[in-house]
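Issue 218. Parser rejects a valid record. Input:
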Amino acid sequence: MGPVASGFELREPGVGDLGWVVARHGVVYHESYGWDASFEALVAGVVGRFAERHDPARERGWIAVVDGRPAGSIFCMAEEGDPETARLRLLLVEPWARGLGIGKALVGECVKFARAVGYRRMILWTDDFLVSARRLYADAGFRLVSSRTEVAFGAESVAEDWELVF
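Output the parser choked on:
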């Protein structure tokens, strides 16, 4: 078990959780933003890489749980080719669980872990329309370092790269 706050707990992924992460990212982003199955495929690749070869000493995932139900996720993964950089991946809070502080807790745990295991910086990719997530990242100390308009997942958006230097 992990930290418990305001009616939810954070824990490491268990059996079935990785499939839930893939499925819920696909469904939530499709229903909320019209993204197509190529986004779910991207998430499946990230989750597959984590499942097959993550280094438990330097990489970790968390699942937020409310009343026994998965309500959110986040992962800290090493940036390939850069041992000093961690990448925050796959932050999701279920629409029904928003407003409970889950996103803030997930981001906080991920950043705390990255610092504790010795990364010098943490990076992430998001989109400009994800206002709540962007606020969480800014509140955690991340800063926007670049943005670009792109067509991905069946939609045009402004993709952003953020960085937190420890």
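Fixed in the parser; the record now loads. The mean pLDDT is 95.
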